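Q: What would this complex look like in 3D?
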Amino acid sequence: MLKVSVDKINDLFRAIAATQKLYLPVDTNAGAQYREWSEGVTMSQALNTNRSAKDFFFPQTENLAEFKMEGKKIEVKPQVNEYEDYVVFGVRACDAASFAILDRVFLSEPVDTFYAHRREHGTIITLACNRPAETCFCTTFGVDPAVPGGDVSAWQKGEELYLEAQTEKGEKLLQAVAGALSQAESEDIEPVKAAIRVMMEKLPLAKLSLKGIEDQKMLDLFYSDKWNALSESCLGCGTCTFVCPTCQCYDVRDFDTGNGIQRFRCWDSCMYSDFTKMAHGNIRNSQMERFRQRFMHKLVYFPENNEGIYSCVGCGRCLAKCPIHMNIVKVIKTMGGTENE
Amino acid sequence: MSERIDPLIPMVGVVTDIRVDTPDVKTFRVEAPEGGKVFEHIPGQCAMLSVPGVGEGMFSITSSPTQKNYMEFSIKKCGCVTSWLHSMEVGQMITIRGPYGNGFPVDTDFKGKDMVFIAGGIGLAPLHSVINYARDKRDQYGTIDVVYGSRSMDDLVDFPEIQNVWCKEEGMNVHLTIDREQEGWDGHVGFVPNYVKELGFDASKTFIICGPPIMIKFTLAGLTEMGIAKNQVYTTMELKMKCGIGKCGRCNIGDKYVCKDGPVFRCDQIDEMTNEY
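A: Here is my prediction, written as C-alpha coordinates for the whole assembly.
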Protein backbone atom coordinates (compact mmCIF):
# COMPACT_ATOMS: atom_id res chain seq x y z
CA MET A 1 0.00 0.00 0.00
CA LEU A 2 1.25 3.44 -0.95
CA LYS A 3 -0.09 6.92 -0.37
CA VAL A 4 0.11 10.51 -1.47
CA SER A 5 -1.22 13.61 0.18
CA VAL A 6 -4.23 15.03 -1.72
CA ASP A 7 -2.61 18.47 -1.91
CA LYS A 8 0.39 16.83 -3.59
CA ILE A 9 -1.70 14.83 -6.04
CA ASN A 10 -0.38 16.88 -8.94
CA ASP A 11 3.05 15.39 -8.20
CA LEU A 12 1.58 11.96 -8.87
CA PHE A 13 -0.20 13.15 -12.02
CA ARG A 14 2.99 14.83 -13.21
CA ALA A 15 5.01 11.66 -12.63
CA ILE A 16 2.49 9.56 -14.60
CA ALA A 17 2.12 12.11 -17.39
CA ALA A 18 5.90 12.28 -17.78
CA THR A 19 5.89 8.98 -19.65
CA GLN A 20 2.35 8.49 -20.94
CA LYS A 21 -0.96 10.23 -21.44
CA LEU A 22 -3.08 10.57 -18.33
CA TYR A 23 -6.85 10.99 -18.46
CA LEU A 24 -9.08 11.90 -15.56
CA PRO A 25 -12.60 13.25 -14.94
CA VAL A 26 -12.73 17.02 -15.46
CA ASP A 27 -15.72 19.36 -15.08
CA THR A 28 -16.86 20.66 -18.48
CA ASN A 29 -19.94 22.43 -19.82
CA ALA A 30 -21.31 18.95 -20.50
CA GLY A 31 -20.72 17.69 -16.97
CA ALA A 32 -17.76 15.60 -15.85
CA GLN A 33 -15.88 14.08 -18.78
CA TYR A 34 -12.57 12.29 -19.13
CA ARG A 35 -9.94 14.73 -20.38
CA GLU A 36 -6.19 14.58 -20.75
CA TRP A 37 -4.34 15.92 -17.74
CA SER A 38 -1.85 18.75 -18.10
CA GLU A 39 -0.56 21.33 -15.64
CA GLY A 40 -3.46 23.35 -14.26
CA VAL A 41 -6.14 20.73 -14.95
CA THR A 42 -8.03 19.79 -11.80
CA MET A 43 -9.95 16.63 -11.23
CA SER A 44 -13.74 16.77 -11.03
CA GLN A 45 -15.33 16.01 -7.67
CA ALA A 46 -18.42 14.55 -9.37
CA LEU A 47 -19.22 10.98 -8.45
CA ASN A 48 -18.97 9.82 -12.05
CA THR A 49 -18.49 11.00 -15.60
CA ASN A 50 -21.41 11.78 -17.88
CA ARG A 51 -20.28 9.21 -20.41
CA SER A 52 -18.82 5.93 -19.31
CA ALA A 53 -15.17 4.93 -19.50
CA LYS A 54 -15.88 2.43 -22.32
CA ASP A 55 -14.90 5.19 -24.78
CA PHE A 56 -11.23 4.46 -24.07
CA PHE A 57 -11.41 0.98 -25.59
CA PHE A 58 -14.47 1.28 -27.78
CA PRO A 59 -14.62 4.84 -29.14
CA GLN A 60 -17.88 6.19 -30.51
CA THR A 61 -16.48 6.03 -34.05
CA GLU A 62 -13.29 4.56 -35.44
CA ASN A 63 -11.94 3.74 -38.86
CA LEU A 64 -11.58 0.10 -39.87
CA ALA A 65 -10.29 0.21 -43.42
CA GLU A 66 -10.00 2.31 -46.51
CA PHE A 67 -10.82 1.12 -50.02
CA LYS A 68 -9.22 2.48 -53.15
CA MET A 69 -11.55 1.92 -56.08
CA GLU A 70 -10.29 2.11 -59.62
CA GLY A 71 -12.38 0.78 -62.47
CA LYS A 72 -13.30 -2.74 -61.49
CA LYS A 73 -10.42 -2.98 -59.00
CA ILE A 74 -10.52 -2.63 -55.24
CA GLU A 75 -7.55 -2.24 -52.94
CA VAL A 76 -8.13 -2.82 -49.21
CA LYS A 77 -6.02 -0.75 -46.83
CA PRO A 78 -6.62 -1.92 -43.25
CA GLN A 79 -6.56 0.86 -40.68
CA VAL A 80 -3.18 0.96 -38.95
CA ASN A 81 -3.21 2.70 -35.57
CA GLU A 82 -0.23 3.68 -33.46
CA TYR A 83 -1.21 2.62 -29.97
CA GLU A 84 0.45 4.41 -27.05
CA ASP A 85 0.34 3.51 -23.38
CA TYR A 86 -2.05 5.61 -21.32
CA VAL A 87 -3.45 5.81 -17.83
CA VAL A 88 -7.04 6.51 -16.81
CA PHE A 89 -7.38 7.84 -13.28
CA GLY A 90 -10.55 7.93 -11.20
CA VAL A 91 -12.57 5.13 -12.77
CA ARG A 92 -15.36 4.02 -10.43
CA ALA A 93 -15.94 0.39 -9.45
CA CYS A 94 -19.02 0.11 -11.67
CA ASP A 95 -17.20 1.24 -14.81
CA ALA A 96 -14.22 -0.96 -13.95
CA ALA A 97 -16.60 -3.91 -13.68
CA SER A 98 -18.03 -3.04 -17.09
CA PHE A 99 -14.64 -3.69 -18.70
CA ALA A 100 -14.84 -7.38 -17.75
CA ILE A 101 -18.24 -7.51 -19.46
CA LEU A 102 -16.99 -5.76 -22.60
CA ASP A 103 -13.98 -8.12 -22.60
CA ARG A 104 -16.35 -11.08 -22.87
CA VAL A 105 -17.71 -9.64 -26.10
CA PHE A 106 -14.64 -8.15 -27.76
CA LEU A 107 -11.89 -10.47 -26.52
CA SER A 108 -13.74 -13.72 -27.23
CA GLU A 109 -12.73 -15.45 -30.47
CA PRO A 110 -12.42 -14.00 -33.02
CA VAL A 111 -10.77 -11.17 -31.05
CA ASP A 112 -11.63 -7.58 -31.94
CA THR A 113 -8.07 -6.34 -32.44
CA PHE A 114 -8.91 -2.64 -32.22
CA TYR A 115 -10.44 -3.11 -28.77
CA ALA A 116 -7.69 -5.53 -27.69
CA HIS A 117 -4.89 -3.08 -28.52
CA ARG A 118 -6.54 -0.22 -26.63
CA ARG A 119 -7.21 -2.48 -23.67
CA GLU A 120 -3.60 -3.72 -23.58
CA HIS A 121 -2.17 -0.21 -23.69
CA GLY A 122 -4.38 1.25 -20.96
CA THR A 123 -3.68 1.16 -17.22
CA ILE A 124 -6.75 1.79 -15.08
CA ILE A 125 -6.60 3.47 -11.69
CA THR A 126 -9.93 3.11 -9.95
CA LEU A 127 -11.23 5.24 -7.13
CA ALA A 128 -13.43 3.96 -4.30
CA CYS A 129 -16.77 5.80 -3.93
CA ASN A 130 -16.75 7.80 -0.71
CA ARG A 131 -20.07 9.39 -1.57
CA PRO A 132 -22.24 7.11 -3.71
CA ALA A 133 -25.42 8.59 -5.20
CA GLU A 134 -29.08 7.73 -4.79
CA THR A 135 -29.06 6.31 -8.31
CA CYS A 136 -26.32 3.77 -7.49
CA PHE A 137 -27.19 0.07 -7.38
CA CYS A 138 -23.88 -1.59 -8.25
CA THR A 139 -24.07 -3.96 -5.28
CA THR A 140 -27.11 -5.62 -6.90
CA PHE A 141 -24.72 -6.75 -9.64
CA GLY A 142 -22.02 -7.92 -7.24
CA VAL A 143 -19.86 -4.82 -7.51
CA ASP A 144 -18.23 -3.65 -4.26
CA PRO A 145 -17.45 0.08 -4.49
CA ALA A 146 -15.13 -0.32 -1.47
CA VAL A 147 -12.92 -2.60 -3.57
CA PRO A 148 -12.99 -0.83 -6.92
CA GLY A 149 -10.63 -3.09 -8.93
CA GLY A 150 -8.74 -1.91 -12.02
CA ASP A 151 -4.96 -2.20 -12.35
CA VAL A 152 -4.48 0.07 -9.35
CA SER A 153 -7.17 0.77 -6.74
CA ALA A 154 -7.26 4.07 -4.91
CA TRP A 155 -9.06 5.18 -1.74
CA GLN A 156 -9.33 8.66 -0.34
CA LYS A 157 -9.06 8.94 3.43
CA GLY A 158 -9.17 12.46 4.77
CA GLU A 159 -6.41 14.39 3.09
CA GLU A 160 -4.64 11.31 1.80
CA LEU A 161 -5.01 9.12 -1.24
CA TYR A 162 -4.06 5.47 -0.80
CA LEU A 163 -3.04 3.35 -3.79
CA GLU A 164 -2.62 -0.39 -4.18
CA ALA A 165 -1.64 -2.33 -7.30
CA GLN A 166 -4.10 -5.04 -8.35
CA THR A 167 -2.36 -6.34 -11.46
CA GLU A 168 1.14 -6.65 -12.83
CA LYS A 169 0.45 -3.65 -15.04
CA GLY A 170 -0.58 -1.65 -11.98
CA GLU A 171 2.51 -2.79 -10.11
CA LYS A 172 4.69 -1.52 -12.94
CA LEU A 173 2.98 1.86 -12.99
CA LEU A 174 3.32 2.38 -9.24
CA GLN A 175 7.00 1.42 -9.37
CA ALA A 176 7.56 3.97 -12.13
CA VAL A 177 6.01 6.78 -10.06
CA ALA A 178 7.32 5.59 -6.67
CA GLY A 179 9.07 8.93 -6.13
CA ALA A 180 5.72 10.67 -5.75
CA LEU A 181 4.43 8.15 -3.19
CA SER A 182 5.20 7.09 0.33
CA GLN A 183 4.66 3.77 2.12
CA ALA A 184 1.41 3.09 3.95
CA GLU A 185 -0.33 0.27 5.77
CA SER A 186 -3.24 -1.67 4.24
CA GLU A 187 -5.13 -1.52 7.53
CA ASP A 188 -5.25 2.27 7.24
CA ILE A 189 -8.04 2.13 4.69
CA GLU A 190 -10.17 -0.53 6.37
CA PRO A 191 -12.33 2.15 8.07
CA VAL A 192 -12.88 3.78 4.65
CA LYS A 193 -14.03 0.47 3.15
CA ALA A 194 -16.33 -0.18 6.11
CA ALA A 195 -17.82 3.31 5.86
CA ILE A 196 -18.53 2.85 2.13
CA ARG A 197 -20.29 -0.45 2.77
CA VAL A 198 -22.45 1.07 5.50
CA MET A 199 -23.40 3.89 3.14
CA MET A 200 -24.25 1.47 0.31
CA GLU A 201 -26.70 -0.34 2.56
CA LYS A 202 -28.54 2.89 3.27
CA LEU A 203 -29.06 3.80 -0.39
CA PRO A 204 -32.63 3.67 -1.71
CA LEU A 205 -31.80 0.90 -4.22
CA ALA A 206 -29.69 -1.18 -1.82
CA LYS A 207 -32.27 -3.94 -1.62
CA LEU A 208 -32.89 -4.24 -5.37
CA SER A 209 -32.93 -7.98 -6.06
CA LEU A 210 -32.60 -9.97 -9.26
CA LYS A 211 -34.03 -13.11 -7.78
CA GLY A 212 -37.45 -12.60 -9.35
CA ILE A 213 -35.80 -12.36 -12.80
CA GLU A 214 -33.46 -15.29 -12.17
CA ASP A 215 -36.34 -17.56 -11.19
CA GLN A 216 -38.25 -17.04 -14.43
CA LYS A 217 -37.81 -18.78 -17.77
CA MET A 218 -36.55 -16.78 -20.74
CA LEU A 219 -39.71 -17.27 -22.78
CA ASP A 220 -42.02 -16.39 -19.87
CA LEU A 221 -40.18 -13.10 -19.40
CA PHE A 222 -40.11 -12.45 -23.14
CA TYR A 223 -43.85 -12.99 -23.61
CA SER A 224 -44.83 -11.10 -20.44
CA ASP A 225 -47.60 -8.54 -21.02
CA LYS A 226 -45.80 -6.11 -18.71
CA TRP A 227 -43.46 -4.94 -21.49
CA ASN A 228 -46.24 -2.90 -23.10
CA ALA A 229 -46.78 -0.63 -20.11
CA LEU A 230 -43.06 -0.40 -19.36
CA SER A 231 -42.16 0.71 -22.87
CA GLU A 232 -45.21 2.86 -23.57
CA SER A 233 -43.45 6.19 -23.07
CA CYS A 234 -40.07 5.21 -24.55
CA LEU A 235 -39.03 7.77 -27.14
CA GLY A 236 -36.43 5.50 -28.71
CA CYS A 237 -33.81 8.23 -28.30
CA GLY A 238 -31.03 5.75 -27.49
CA THR A 239 -29.57 7.90 -24.69
CA CYS A 240 -29.55 4.92 -22.32
CA THR A 241 -27.45 2.88 -24.75
CA PHE A 242 -24.91 5.65 -25.33
CA VAL A 243 -24.29 6.43 -21.66
CA CYS A 244 -24.34 2.74 -20.69
CA PRO A 245 -20.91 1.32 -19.85
CA THR A 246 -21.87 -2.16 -21.07
CA CYS A 247 -23.84 -1.36 -24.24
CA GLN A 248 -21.60 -2.45 -27.07
CA CYS A 249 -23.72 -2.82 -30.20
CA TYR A 250 -22.13 -1.29 -33.24
CA ASP A 251 -22.73 -0.49 -36.87
CA VAL A 252 -20.26 -0.70 -39.76
CA ARG A 253 -20.69 2.01 -42.38
CA ASP A 254 -18.90 3.52 -45.37
CA PHE A 255 -18.49 7.03 -46.64
CA ASP A 256 -16.91 8.46 -49.74
CA THR A 257 -13.95 10.67 -48.82
CA GLY A 258 -13.60 11.86 -52.40
CA ASN A 259 -10.34 9.96 -52.44
CA GLY A 260 -11.65 6.49 -51.71
CA ILE A 261 -14.11 4.81 -49.40
CA GLN A 262 -13.62 4.94 -45.64
CA ARG A 263 -15.18 2.11 -43.67
CA PHE A 264 -15.79 2.91 -40.03
CA ARG A 265 -17.44 1.44 -37.01
CA CYS A 266 -19.74 3.50 -34.79
CA TRP A 267 -21.93 2.89 -31.78
CA ASP A 268 -25.41 1.78 -32.62
CA SER A 269 -28.50 1.34 -30.50
CA CYS A 270 -31.05 -1.48 -30.32
CA MET A 271 -33.53 1.28 -29.47
CA TYR A 272 -33.47 2.54 -33.07
CA SER A 273 -35.96 1.34 -35.64
CA ASP A 274 -33.38 0.70 -38.36
CA PHE A 275 -31.19 -1.44 -36.09
CA THR A 276 -32.73 -4.65 -37.45
CA LYS A 277 -34.31 -3.26 -40.60
CA MET A 278 -33.50 -5.24 -43.75
CA ALA A 279 -34.50 -4.82 -47.37
CA HIS A 280 -37.40 -7.23 -46.86
CA GLY A 281 -38.63 -5.95 -43.51
CA ASN A 282 -37.97 -5.54 -39.82
CA ILE A 283 -38.20 -8.14 -37.05
CA ARG A 284 -38.63 -5.50 -34.33
CA ASN A 285 -41.20 -3.09 -35.66
CA SER A 286 -42.50 -1.61 -32.43
CA GLN A 287 -40.69 0.33 -29.71
CA MET A 288 -41.96 -2.30 -27.26
CA GLU A 289 -39.97 -4.96 -29.11
CA ARG A 290 -36.85 -2.81 -29.18
CA PHE A 291 -37.21 -1.85 -25.51
CA ARG A 292 -37.73 -5.51 -24.57
CA GLN A 293 -34.62 -6.51 -26.54
CA ARG A 294 -32.41 -4.11 -24.58
CA PHE A 295 -33.47 -5.35 -21.16
CA MET A 296 -33.79 -9.01 -22.11
CA HIS A 297 -30.23 -8.79 -23.44
CA LYS A 298 -28.83 -7.32 -20.23
CA LEU A 299 -30.82 -9.41 -17.77
CA VAL A 300 -31.43 -12.71 -19.57
CA TYR A 301 -29.60 -13.34 -22.86
CA PHE A 302 -26.16 -12.12 -21.77
CA PRO A 303 -26.17 -14.11 -18.49
CA GLU A 304 -27.42 -17.15 -20.43
CA ASN A 305 -24.27 -17.02 -22.56
CA ASN A 306 -21.85 -15.83 -19.86
CA GLU A 307 -22.09 -18.02 -16.78
CA GLY A 308 -24.83 -15.95 -15.22
CA ILE A 309 -23.04 -12.61 -15.46
CA TYR A 310 -25.44 -9.73 -16.08
CA SER A 311 -24.70 -7.03 -18.61
CA CYS A 312 -25.37 -4.21 -16.12
CA VAL A 313 -23.11 -2.79 -13.42
CA GLY A 314 -25.60 -0.52 -11.66
CA CYS A 315 -23.82 2.76 -12.46
CA GLY A 316 -27.16 4.58 -12.54
CA ARG A 317 -26.44 6.68 -15.62
CA CYS A 318 -29.65 5.56 -17.34
CA LEU A 319 -31.61 6.56 -14.23
CA ALA A 320 -30.18 10.05 -14.38
CA LYS A 321 -30.28 10.56 -18.16
CA CYS A 322 -33.48 8.99 -19.52
CA PRO A 323 -35.79 11.83 -20.59
CA ILE A 324 -38.88 9.87 -19.57
CA HIS A 325 -37.40 8.43 -16.37
CA MET A 326 -37.65 4.82 -17.52
CA ASN A 327 -34.76 2.61 -16.55
CA ILE A 328 -33.47 -0.85 -15.76
CA VAL A 329 -34.40 -0.54 -12.08
CA LYS A 330 -38.08 -0.09 -12.99
CA VAL A 331 -37.79 -3.03 -15.36
CA ILE A 332 -36.25 -5.25 -12.68
CA LYS A 333 -38.89 -4.22 -10.16
CA THR A 334 -41.78 -4.79 -12.59
CA MET A 335 -40.55 -8.01 -14.18
CA GLY A 336 -39.16 -9.44 -10.97
CA GLY A 337 -42.56 -10.03 -9.41
CA THR A 338 -43.06 -9.59 -5.69
CA GLU A 339 -39.37 -9.71 -4.86
CA ASN A 340 -38.87 -5.94 -4.79
CA GLU A 341 -42.19 -4.79 -3.38
CA MET B 1 1.19 -1.68 -34.78
CA SER B 2 -1.10 -4.51 -35.63
CA GLU B 3 0.30 -7.83 -36.71
CA ARG B 4 -3.14 -9.39 -36.34
CA ILE B 5 -5.66 -8.73 -39.05
CA ASP B 6 -8.98 -7.76 -37.59
CA PRO B 7 -11.93 -10.05 -38.43
CA LEU B 8 -13.86 -7.04 -39.77
CA ILE B 9 -11.27 -6.38 -42.48
CA PRO B 10 -12.39 -8.05 -45.71
CA MET B 11 -10.43 -9.66 -48.54
CA VAL B 12 -10.91 -9.00 -52.20
CA GLY B 13 -12.74 -11.35 -54.55
CA VAL B 14 -13.20 -11.17 -58.31
CA VAL B 15 -16.51 -11.91 -59.99
CA THR B 16 -15.52 -14.33 -62.76
CA ASP B 17 -18.96 -15.35 -64.00
CA ILE B 18 -22.51 -14.04 -63.74
CA ARG B 19 -25.48 -16.25 -64.52
CA VAL B 20 -28.97 -14.84 -64.86
CA ASP B 21 -31.30 -17.29 -63.09
CA THR B 22 -34.60 -15.46 -62.89
CA PRO B 23 -35.80 -11.90 -63.50
CA ASP B 24 -34.50 -10.94 -60.02
CA VAL B 25 -31.90 -13.61 -59.17
CA LYS B 26 -28.37 -13.80 -60.47
CA THR B 27 -25.64 -16.23 -59.49
CA PHE B 28 -22.18 -14.76 -59.08
CA ARG B 29 -19.01 -16.82 -59.24
CA VAL B 30 -16.29 -15.39 -56.97
CA GLU B 31 -12.60 -16.25 -57.01
CA ALA B 32 -9.50 -14.87 -55.28
CA PRO B 33 -7.55 -12.37 -57.43
CA GLU B 34 -4.80 -14.98 -57.83
CA GLY B 35 -7.39 -17.65 -58.69
CA GLY B 36 -8.99 -20.33 -56.55
CA LYS B 37 -11.30 -19.94 -53.58
CA VAL B 38 -10.93 -17.01 -51.19
CA PHE B 39 -11.53 -19.40 -48.26
CA GLU B 40 -12.96 -22.85 -47.53
CA HIS B 41 -16.43 -23.37 -46.08
CA ILE B 42 -18.92 -26.05 -45.09
CA PRO B 43 -22.45 -26.27 -46.57
CA GLY B 44 -24.83 -23.75 -45.02
CA GLN B 45 -22.17 -21.24 -44.04
CA CYS B 46 -22.31 -17.63 -45.19
CA ALA B 47 -20.01 -14.85 -46.29
CA MET B 48 -20.08 -11.08 -45.95
CA LEU B 49 -19.95 -9.53 -49.39
CA SER B 50 -19.54 -5.85 -49.88
CA VAL B 51 -19.35 -3.13 -52.38
CA PRO B 52 -17.35 -0.41 -50.60
CA GLY B 53 -19.38 2.77 -50.44
CA VAL B 54 -22.67 0.92 -50.88
CA GLY B 55 -22.69 -1.53 -48.00
CA GLU B 56 -21.97 -4.99 -46.71
CA GLY B 57 -24.38 -7.90 -46.48
CA MET B 58 -24.48 -11.54 -45.44
CA PHE B 59 -25.15 -14.12 -48.15
CA SER B 60 -25.36 -17.91 -48.20
CA ILE B 61 -22.60 -19.62 -50.09
CA THR B 62 -24.56 -21.42 -52.78
CA SER B 63 -21.80 -23.65 -54.12
CA SER B 64 -20.71 -26.87 -52.47
CA PRO B 65 -17.32 -27.05 -50.74
CA THR B 66 -16.59 -29.92 -53.13
CA GLN B 67 -16.34 -27.28 -55.85
CA LYS B 68 -12.61 -26.70 -55.57
CA ASN B 69 -12.05 -23.64 -57.74
CA TYR B 70 -14.58 -21.01 -56.81
CA MET B 71 -17.54 -20.02 -54.65
CA GLU B 72 -20.97 -19.11 -55.97
CA PHE B 73 -23.66 -16.86 -54.55
CA SER B 74 -27.26 -16.82 -55.80
CA ILE B 75 -28.54 -13.39 -54.90
CA LYS B 76 -31.98 -11.87 -55.21
CA LYS B 77 -32.18 -8.19 -56.04
CA CYS B 78 -34.08 -6.54 -53.23
CA GLY B 79 -32.06 -3.73 -51.61
CA CYS B 80 -29.14 -1.33 -52.12
CA VAL B 81 -26.26 -3.80 -52.02
CA THR B 82 -28.03 -6.48 -54.04
CA SER B 83 -29.08 -3.94 -56.69
CA TRP B 84 -25.47 -2.86 -57.06
CA LEU B 85 -24.32 -6.49 -57.26
CA HIS B 86 -26.88 -7.10 -60.00
CA SER B 87 -25.46 -4.21 -62.02
CA MET B 88 -21.92 -5.68 -61.97
CA GLU B 89 -20.03 -7.00 -64.96
CA VAL B 90 -17.59 -9.90 -65.03
CA GLY B 91 -14.16 -8.86 -63.74
CA GLN B 92 -15.56 -6.59 -61.04
CA MET B 93 -13.93 -6.90 -57.64
CA ILE B 94 -15.98 -7.03 -54.45
CA THR B 95 -14.89 -7.55 -50.87
CA ILE B 96 -15.53 -10.77 -49.04
CA ARG B 97 -14.99 -12.11 -45.52
CA GLY B 98 -15.99 -15.29 -43.77
CA PRO B 99 -16.95 -18.07 -43.59
CA TYR B 100 -19.57 -17.42 -40.92
CA GLY B 101 -22.00 -19.61 -39.03
CA ASN B 102 -22.31 -23.22 -38.04
CA GLY B 103 -23.40 -24.75 -41.37
CA PHE B 104 -25.37 -27.97 -41.76
CA PRO B 105 -24.28 -31.08 -39.81
CA VAL B 106 -23.30 -32.85 -43.04
CA ASP B 107 -20.57 -34.92 -41.43
CA THR B 108 -22.53 -35.89 -38.31
CA ASP B 109 -26.35 -35.86 -38.07
CA PHE B 110 -26.93 -36.01 -41.85
CA LYS B 111 -24.56 -38.96 -42.44
CA GLY B 112 -26.33 -41.96 -43.92
CA LYS B 113 -29.73 -40.25 -43.76
CA ASP B 114 -32.48 -40.03 -46.37
CA MET B 115 -32.84 -36.31 -46.86
CA VAL B 116 -35.78 -34.20 -48.02
CA PHE B 117 -34.92 -30.65 -49.05
CA ILE B 118 -37.84 -28.24 -49.10
CA ALA B 119 -37.21 -24.82 -50.63
CA GLY B 120 -39.20 -21.82 -51.72
CA GLY B 121 -37.89 -19.18 -54.14
CA ILE B 122 -34.42 -17.87 -53.28
CA GLY B 123 -34.53 -20.24 -50.28
CA LEU B 124 -32.90 -22.79 -52.54
CA ALA B 125 -29.60 -20.86 -52.31
CA PRO B 126 -28.37 -22.17 -48.94
CA LEU B 127 -29.73 -25.68 -49.66
CA HIS B 128 -28.01 -25.81 -53.05
CA SER B 129 -24.67 -26.18 -51.27
CA VAL B 130 -25.80 -29.16 -49.16
CA ILE B 131 -27.60 -30.84 -52.06
CA ASN B 132 -24.54 -30.75 -54.29
CA TYR B 133 -22.29 -31.74 -51.38
CA ALA B 134 -24.44 -34.84 -50.79
CA ARG B 135 -24.50 -35.58 -54.54
CA ASP B 136 -20.70 -35.45 -54.66
CA LYS B 137 -20.44 -37.76 -51.66
CA ARG B 138 -23.31 -39.96 -52.78
CA ASP B 139 -22.26 -43.11 -50.90
CA GLN B 140 -22.36 -41.28 -47.55
CA TYR B 141 -26.04 -40.33 -47.73
CA GLY B 142 -29.35 -42.08 -48.43
CA THR B 143 -31.99 -40.90 -50.88
CA ILE B 144 -32.32 -37.23 -51.76
CA ASP B 145 -35.69 -35.61 -52.36
CA VAL B 146 -35.99 -31.99 -53.39
CA VAL B 147 -39.32 -30.18 -53.17
CA TYR B 148 -38.86 -26.79 -54.75
CA GLY B 149 -41.45 -24.17 -55.44
CA SER B 150 -41.54 -20.67 -56.83
CA ARG B 151 -44.01 -17.99 -57.85
CA SER B 152 -43.66 -18.98 -61.51
CA MET B 153 -41.58 -21.13 -63.81
CA ASP B 154 -39.33 -18.16 -64.50
CA ASP B 155 -38.59 -17.76 -60.77
CA LEU B 156 -37.03 -21.19 -60.25
CA VAL B 157 -33.38 -20.54 -59.43
CA ASP B 158 -30.86 -22.50 -61.51
CA PHE B 159 -33.58 -24.33 -63.44
CA PRO B 160 -31.14 -25.77 -66.05
CA GLU B 161 -29.07 -27.57 -63.39
CA ILE B 162 -32.23 -28.86 -61.75
CA GLN B 163 -33.61 -30.17 -65.05
CA ASN B 164 -30.44 -31.45 -66.65
CA VAL B 165 -28.55 -32.77 -63.63
CA TRP B 166 -30.66 -33.22 -60.50
CA CYS B 167 -33.73 -34.67 -62.27
CA LYS B 168 -31.59 -37.25 -64.06
CA GLU B 169 -29.57 -38.37 -61.05
CA GLU B 170 -30.10 -41.81 -59.62
CA GLY B 171 -31.39 -41.92 -56.05
CA MET B 172 -32.58 -38.34 -56.35
CA ASN B 173 -36.19 -37.23 -56.77
CA VAL B 174 -37.04 -33.68 -57.70
CA HIS B 175 -40.56 -32.34 -57.14
CA LEU B 176 -41.14 -28.90 -58.63
CA THR B 177 -44.15 -26.69 -58.16
CA ILE B 178 -45.22 -23.18 -59.06
CA ASP B 179 -47.83 -21.01 -57.37
CA ARG B 180 -50.16 -20.49 -60.36
CA GLU B 181 -50.90 -22.19 -63.71
CA GLN B 182 -48.61 -21.02 -66.49
CA GLU B 183 -48.35 -21.70 -70.19
CA GLY B 184 -45.57 -24.19 -70.93
CA TRP B 185 -45.67 -25.69 -67.42
CA ASP B 186 -46.99 -29.23 -67.13
CA GLY B 187 -45.69 -29.84 -63.62
CA HIS B 188 -47.37 -29.43 -60.25
CA VAL B 189 -49.17 -26.21 -59.37
CA GLY B 190 -49.69 -25.13 -55.76
CA PHE B 191 -47.89 -23.90 -52.67
CA VAL B 192 -44.94 -25.80 -51.23
CA PRO B 193 -46.45 -26.68 -47.81
CA ASN B 194 -49.50 -28.34 -49.47
CA TYR B 195 -47.33 -30.12 -52.02
CA VAL B 196 -45.18 -31.59 -49.23
CA LYS B 197 -48.32 -32.97 -47.60
CA GLU B 198 -49.54 -34.40 -50.93
CA LEU B 199 -46.21 -36.09 -51.51
CA GLY B 200 -46.25 -37.58 -48.00
CA PHE B 201 -42.78 -38.54 -46.81
CA ASP B 202 -41.65 -41.33 -44.53
CA ALA B 203 -41.30 -40.01 -40.97
CA SER B 204 -37.80 -41.45 -40.63
CA LYS B 205 -36.29 -39.01 -43.11
CA THR B 206 -34.37 -35.82 -42.31
CA PHE B 207 -35.98 -32.60 -43.53
CA ILE B 208 -34.18 -29.39 -44.44
CA ILE B 209 -36.33 -26.33 -45.09
CA CYS B 210 -35.53 -22.87 -46.39
CA GLY B 211 -37.72 -20.19 -47.87
CA PRO B 212 -39.80 -17.19 -46.90
CA PRO B 213 -40.80 -17.24 -43.19
CA ILE B 214 -44.44 -17.89 -44.05
CA MET B 215 -43.49 -20.94 -46.14
CA ILE B 216 -41.26 -22.31 -43.37
CA LYS B 217 -44.03 -21.83 -40.84
CA PHE B 218 -46.70 -23.69 -42.83
CA THR B 219 -44.32 -26.40 -44.00
CA LEU B 220 -43.23 -27.06 -40.44
CA ALA B 221 -46.87 -27.29 -39.31
CA GLY B 222 -47.53 -29.75 -42.13
CA LEU B 223 -44.53 -31.90 -41.21
CA THR B 224 -45.65 -31.99 -37.59
CA GLU B 225 -49.10 -33.15 -38.77
CA MET B 226 -47.36 -35.89 -40.74
CA GLY B 227 -45.85 -37.13 -37.49
CA ILE B 228 -42.32 -35.94 -38.15
CA ALA B 229 -40.33 -35.13 -35.01
CA LYS B 230 -38.97 -31.58 -34.85
CA ASN B 231 -35.47 -32.80 -34.13
CA GLN B 232 -35.41 -34.28 -37.65
CA VAL B 233 -36.19 -30.94 -39.24
CA TYR B 234 -33.57 -28.27 -39.93
CA THR B 235 -33.87 -24.76 -41.23
CA THR B 236 -31.57 -21.84 -41.85
CA MET B 237 -32.36 -18.31 -40.74
CA GLU B 238 -31.39 -14.84 -41.80
CA LEU B 239 -31.45 -11.55 -39.93
CA LYS B 240 -29.68 -8.23 -40.37
CA MET B 241 -25.98 -8.59 -39.59
CA LYS B 242 -23.07 -6.19 -39.44
CA CYS B 243 -20.17 -8.14 -37.96
CA GLY B 244 -20.84 -11.84 -38.57
CA ILE B 245 -18.98 -12.76 -35.37
CA GLY B 246 -21.54 -12.27 -32.60
CA LYS B 247 -20.40 -8.82 -31.46
CA CYS B 248 -22.43 -6.11 -33.21
CA GLY B 249 -25.52 -7.24 -31.31
CA ARG B 250 -28.35 -7.25 -33.83
CA CYS B 251 -28.98 -10.73 -35.26
CA ASN B 252 -29.99 -12.37 -32.01
CA ILE B 253 -33.12 -14.43 -31.58
CA GLY B 254 -33.31 -14.55 -27.80
CA ASP B 255 -29.93 -15.66 -26.51
CA LYS B 256 -28.79 -17.08 -29.88
CA TYR B 257 -26.88 -15.13 -32.49
CA VAL B 258 -27.89 -16.21 -35.99
CA CYS B 259 -24.42 -15.33 -37.32
CA LYS B 260 -22.47 -17.64 -35.01
CA ASP B 261 -24.93 -19.99 -33.25
CA GLY B 262 -26.84 -20.35 -36.57
CA PRO B 263 -27.78 -19.81 -39.30
CA VAL B 264 -28.72 -23.50 -39.19
CA PHE B 265 -31.09 -24.46 -36.38
CA ARG B 266 -32.97 -27.65 -35.65
CA CYS B 267 -36.67 -26.97 -35.33
CA ASP B 268 -36.88 -28.28 -31.77
CA GLN B 269 -34.25 -25.63 -30.88
CA ILE B 270 -36.38 -22.94 -32.52
CA ASP B 271 -39.28 -23.85 -30.24
CA GLU B 272 -37.11 -22.79 -27.31
CA MET B 273 -36.23 -19.46 -28.92
CA THR B 274 -38.14 -16.18 -28.86
CA ASN B 275 -40.35 -15.50 -31.88
CA GLU B 276 -38.37 -12.58 -33.31
CA TYR B 277 -37.55 -13.87 -36.79
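A: To summarize the key features: Residues 211-340 of chain A form one domain. The mean pLDDT of chain A is 95.
Q: Very helpful, thank you.
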